[in-house]
Amino acid sequence: MGEDKNNQKNFLFDESVAANLRVNLKKSLSKFAANDARVSQFVDVIIDKYCEKERFYHNLSHIENLLTAAEKFNDKITDNESLRLAIWFHDVIYQPKKQNNESESAKLAAECLGELNFPRDVIEKIERVILATHKHDAAGLDFDGKLFLDLDLGILGAKPEIYHNYKQAIRREYSFVPWSLYRRSRAHILANFLGREFIYLTDKMRGRFEAAARANVANEIKELS
Q1: What's the chain's average pLDDT?
Q2: CA torsion through residues 118, 122, 125, 126, sign
Q3: pLDDT at residue 14 in the model
């Protein structure tokens, strides 16, 4: 099948959302920092990264959605602060032409949080979660980490019209890849998720999204074939 060039909706955010997210991020980064100016500099760097023009899905809208979704689990999350920071840093480096985005994002998180005096164990926990997003492998993660991976894949269980916009946004991020190659690569990635016993690792996310995610993924594989 050919590419659907209609309805390639960006997951957009408005300026008021960006302003609120900036406040949220500054609060999260300020807990141990003595230098408010340095915090503001890091906030600018991170926000600017998520506003890069080539980002059609992995942008501030994605971060806002994850932060909002995480709030529904506040009573079950052990370390809300670390989870929020993992959300903020997990896609801070996102260059589709490269294969080391997760490790580079984890590296930037460690540098930033280290300079802002976060405890080493907190930094290492956030690094582990970010690195786990490379293959969405939950080995060695606690409940918070597994929940984060589930939240990151929450889009797979979205309503069909939202999922359609998502898959078009991903294609736009990889528009440099020839369609025939993109079809094969994307189908392979999706088939790996479909081949798992469960896509979601936590009971609540599984109960809410597993069936819809499998239907969406299966339909997209069929479209790509």
Answers
A1: 93
A2: negative
A3: 67
